[in-house]
Every structure is written in C-alpha cells, then in structure tokens.
Design brief:
This protein is of the alpha/beta class and 429 residues long. It has 14 helices and 26 strands. The chain has helices at 22-31, 49-61, 86-89, 99-106, 125-133, 165-175, 191-202, 234-246, 262-271, 308-315, 334-341, 370-380, 393-398, 402-408, and strands at 3-7, 15-17, 35-37, 39-43, 64-68, 71-75, 83-84, 108-112, 136-141, 144-149, 157-159, 181-185, 206-208, 214-218, 223-224, 227-229, 251-254, 273-278, 281-286, 294-296, 321-325, 345-349, 352-356, 364-366, 386-390, 412-416. A four-stranded mixed sheet has the order 24-25-1-26, with helices on one face. The protein has a four-stranded mixed sheet with strand order 2-17-19-18. The chain has a four-stranded mixed sheet with strand order 5-6-4-16, covered by helices on one side. Strand 24, helix 12 and strand 25 (386-390) form a beta-alpha-beta unit. The longest helix is centred in the first third of the chain and has 13 residues, at 49-61. The radius of gyration is 22 Å and the shape is elongated. The structure holds uridine-diphosphate-N-acetylglucosamine and phosphoenolpyruvate (PEP). The site of uridine-diphosphate-N-acetylglucosamine has 21 residues, from helix 1, helix 5 and helix 6. Its main location: cytoplasm. The modification 2-(S-cysteinyl)pyruvic acid O-phosphothioketal is found at residue 117. The active site is at 117 (proton donor). This is UDP-N-acetylglucosamine 1-carboxyvinyltransferase.
C-alpha cells in the first residue's frame, strides 16, 4: 500500500510553485463538450488523477482528448453519446458537470448517480430544479438520472436555494446554448466560476456577472473550441501557506492570486502569520508565538471549506483554544479522529471543533478525504517522531507531487510502498 512517511521537526525554507486549479479545470473540461466545432487547448492543467478521470469520461462520450505536459486538447465536434456510466462517475463527483453540456448539445443525458461520499451525501437537487426550469424532464432509472428536453433548452429565471458551486456551473453551461437570456440568482461567486465564464466567453458565449451573485447568460446558437489558461489553484496555494505557518518557517509560495485567498490570508494574519505579496508570489512569515483564532467556513468570499482541515492542523499546534465551524458540508470532520491519534486535543460540538493546541505525536493515520490527506501530512511535519499517512488516492486527486514539493522545501518526507524500514519508529494501530 502506498504511504507517505514524514519525520517531524524540520524547518522549511525556499519556494514552491502552485499548479493550475483542480476545481477550475474540471468544469472547464466538462464545458469543452459545448463546442460543436474546433479544438479547445487548455494550458496550466495540473497532472491530477481527477483530470485523467474526467478526460476518460470525455473520451467515452465521443470527444478526442490529448494530454501533453500541462496542456490538454479537446475536440468534441463529433456526435456525443448522452450516457455517463457509473464506473467513471463514481470515481469523481465532478463528473456530474457533464449534465449541463450534454443537455445543451443533445437535449438529453443519462448520468449515473454516484451516491454520497466521505464528506457528506452531496445531493444535486439544485442542478435538477434549474434544468427543469429550462425545459428538462427527469426520471430515475436503475440508479441513472435520465434527462430529456423537447429540443433546445429554454432560457429561464432561476434562483438557487443556496449558492451551490456545481449547480451554478452546470446551469451556466446549459444556459450558454439555450434559447434566450437566463438569469441565475443567489449563485456561487468562487473564482472558479469566473474562470469557467471566461472560457465559455472565449468560445463565443455571452456570460456577464460571473463572480457576483447574479449571472446573466445570453444563449448563443453554437460555441467553438478555444485556448484558455487555467487559474492557479488557490487551495494548493493555501495549503503551502499553512506548511510555512505550521513549521514556523519563512517560505515563498509562487503563482498565487491573493484576491482569491482574502479570507484565508486575513485568518492567518489574525493568528500572527505575516503574508507579503511579492508580485505573483506570496511570502509567508510566521511569528514564533501564534495566537488561537475562530474560523467558520462559508461560501466564497468566506473561508473555504477546502482549507478547513489544513487550518485545523495549524490550530492544533497553537497554544490556547481555537474553534472551527463547518457550515458547507454535513460531515467534513472525519479527520478529527485521525488528528486525535496524533495527540491533538479536539472536541466536536455539533458542527464546531474546539481545538486546544499542544505537541503532536507521530502516528499511523489514514486520509479520509483529499484535503484531510494534505492536512495530516502538514501535521506530520511538526509531530514528534514519524507519521505514516495512508489512502493516498485521495491526495492524488488534488495535489501534484505533494511530498516532492515539501521535500524540496526541506521536509524529511518519503512516499513509499514499503514501510518496513520505519516500522519500529511508528505508532501502529
Ligand atoms: C470540483 C469542485 O469544484 N468541488 C468543489 C465544489 O463542490 P460542489 O460543487 O459539489 O459543492 P456545492 O457548492 O454544490 O455544495 C455545497 C453544499 O451544498 C450541498 N448541495 C449542493 C448541491 C445541491 O443540489 N444540493 C445540495 O444540498 C452539498 O451537499 C454541500 O453540502 O464546491 C465545494 C464548496 O466550496 C468545494 O468543497 C469542492 O471542492
Ligand atoms: C471536496 C473537494 O473536491 P470534490 O468536490 O471534487 O470532491 C475538494 O477539492 O476539496
């Protein structure tokens, strides 16, 4: 079994470069299906397992996809299949994002329901209700959602019950080829929504207001492939900022858009970490005595749920009592149990974690989701002794060469399938 072994206690130094954003590129890959002519060339694409999974799904649906270094080219000009099968959809929930493009191109889709996942049940009724307003009828058939409209989708006025990122993206994609002007209200305002709108507009679409809570989409009759550079990954950037903070080390994080990270930066500053913008880079300079803080996850521009577990890792090391309240996902505290194996003092009160800082101890822990994987590794950087982190398939969904980047910063970290050399030093459970 693949595992990462970290020996705690090393100071970090130097710089680390952030990749293109996973959560931006996944909807953009799905949106490439909207182009009935031409080839899209996406650059700054991170080499992640989620990108390969979605590329396979696009190929299954009939697109030609080629990958070279950090560039992916997609030609979706052939007639597309409308069926997204369970084995591909179940690997990654973002596969649901092909619904909008398929309904727009084919007036039908059949997408397997992937069910819940480790962080919650993650229903998609906001997507379906929006599509229904655009003229789609749905039925469930043996675990698949079948959607069908009578010809071209119709523009609609849709107000989401809450700002779902995926529903905003799916409806934006569908509306971009619909008949008329769609108004989407109470939508998500994440930077990845703006990046998707920029890509669709570069294909010939007409989307205004992305990044605000009201998006207007004038449907066009066709879209064509285009070239687009994916924005930097704000969550990977934030994860490395916490790597500097947790090790009390000064590091430079390269390729960061600080305006995508305002909530995280202000919480780090409140805790005593100095964040200095240097052109496209960010210098992280923690003070030696960090202070406890209160954090609450919120839709953007609030504190991102995807940084919650990494922030928890940091707070377990700060003297005093901090709290984190999770408001986005119903079950995104699975890592608390893993942190407690590392001697962390965390009590759960409903959706709030009360964290009292103390010295962490190395232990054998398992990644419970993608961000938890990174958070446990961060905790391992400052634990006494060795930490072994397993279930790395989660990490590989969202981080490119995570252990190599930390090693280059000075961490004592290996990734291996053989832990025998370290077994005696590691607390097993
Ligand atoms: C690939 C991608 O970009 N994933 C991100 C996206 O996920 P995703 O797009 O799935 O997140 P949503 O904003 O849709 O979901 C937020 C919450 O709303 C619930 N919900 C959502 C839709 C719906 O129809 N009904 C419903 O109840 C979900 O279960 C969840 O509890 O935004 C999340 C919130 O910032 C991030 O954590 C994920 O990293
Ligand atoms: C929850 C995440 O991703 P996904 O929505 O793809 O599961 C994440 O990136 O932290």
């Amino acid at each position: 079994m693949d595992k990462i072994i970290v020996k705690g206690g090393q100071e970090l130094s130097g710089s680390v470069k952030v990749e293109g954003s996973k959560n931006a590129v996944l909807p953009i890959l799905a949106a490439s299906l909207l182009a009935a002519e031409g080839t899209s060339v996406l650059t700054n694409v991170p080499k992640l397992s989620d990108v390969s999974t979605l590329s396979k799904l696009l190929e299954y649906l009939g697109a030609e996809v080629s990958n070279e270094d950090n560039q992916v080219s997609i030609n979706a000009s052939s007639k597309l299949s409308s069926t997204a099968p369970y084995d591909l959809v179940s690997k990654m929930r973002a596969s649901m994002l092909v619904m909008g493009p398929l309904l727009a191109r084919n007036s039908e889709c059949s997408v397997a329901m992937p069910g819940g996942c480790a962080i919650g049940s993650r229903p998609i009724e906001q997507h379906l209700k929006g599509f229904e307003k655009m003229g789609v009828e749905f039925k469930n058939q043996e675990g698949n959602i079948l959607g069908k409209s009578d010809g071209r989708l119709k523009a609609a006025n849709i107000s989401l019950d809450f700002p779902s990122v995926g529903a905003t993206q799916n409806l934006m994609m569908a509306a971009s080829l619909a008949d008329g002007t769609t108004h989407l209200e109470n939508v998500a305002m994440e930077p990845e929504i703006e990046d998707l709108a920029d890509y669709i507009n570069s294909m010939g679409g007409n989307i205004q207001g992305a990044g605000t809570n009201h998006i207007t989409i004038e449907g066009v009759s066709k879209l064509a492939g285009s070239r687009h550079e994916v924005i930097p990954d704000r969550i990977e950037a934030g994860t490395f900022m916490i790597a500097g903070a947790i090790t009390r080390s000064e590091i430079l994080v390269e390729n960061v858009k600080t305006n995508h990270l305002t909530a995280l930066i202000s919480k780090l500053e409140e805790a005593g970490v100095q964040i200095t913008e240097e052109g496209r880079n960010v210098r992280v300079t923690p003070s030696s005595h960090l202070k406890p803080i209160t954090v609450k996850t919120m839709p953007h521009p609030g504190f991102p749920t995807d940084m919650q577990s990494q922030m928890m890792a940091l707070l377990t090391t700060i003297n005093g009592t901090s709290t984190i309240t999770e408001t986005i996902f119903e079950n995104r505290f699975m890592h608390v149990n893993e942190f407690s194996h590392m001697n962390a003092d965390i009590a759960l009160e409903d959706n709030t974690a009360v964290i009292k800082g103390r010295q962490l101890q190395g232990a054998r822990v398992k990644s419970t989701d993608l961000r938890a994987a990174a958070a446990l590794i961060l905790a391992g950087l400052v634990s006494e002794g060795y930490t072994v982190v397993t279930e790395l398939r989660h990490l590989d969904r969202g981080y490119v060469d995570f252990h190599k980047k930390l090693k280059a910063l000075g961490a004592d970290i290996e990734r291996t399938g053989d832990e025998t050399a370290h077994k005696s030093a590691v607390t097993t459970r």
